[in-house]
Amino acid sequence: MGVFPGKLSGAGKIFCLAVGICLITGSLLIAATPETGKPMVENFPVHDSIKPNVAFWTDIFTRYTRSQGVIHDARNLGRIYGVISLDTARTRTAEKNNEKKKKSALEAHKKILLNLASGKSPRSQKEKKIAKLFPGKAGPEHFKQAARELRIQTGLARQFKEGLIRSGAVIEKFKEIFISHGLPVDLVYLPCVESSFDFTAYSKFGAAGVWQFTRGTGKLYMEIGYVVDQRRDPFISTRSAALLLKRNYKKLGEWPMAITAYNHGLNGMVRAKKQKPSKFHRVKKGDTAGAIARIHSVPLKDLILANGLSRRATVYIGQNLRIPVQGEIIIPKKQTIPESSVPLPLKTESIQSSH
Question: Does the domain at residues 276-355 carry the CATH identifier 1.10.10?
Answer without folding.
Answer: no
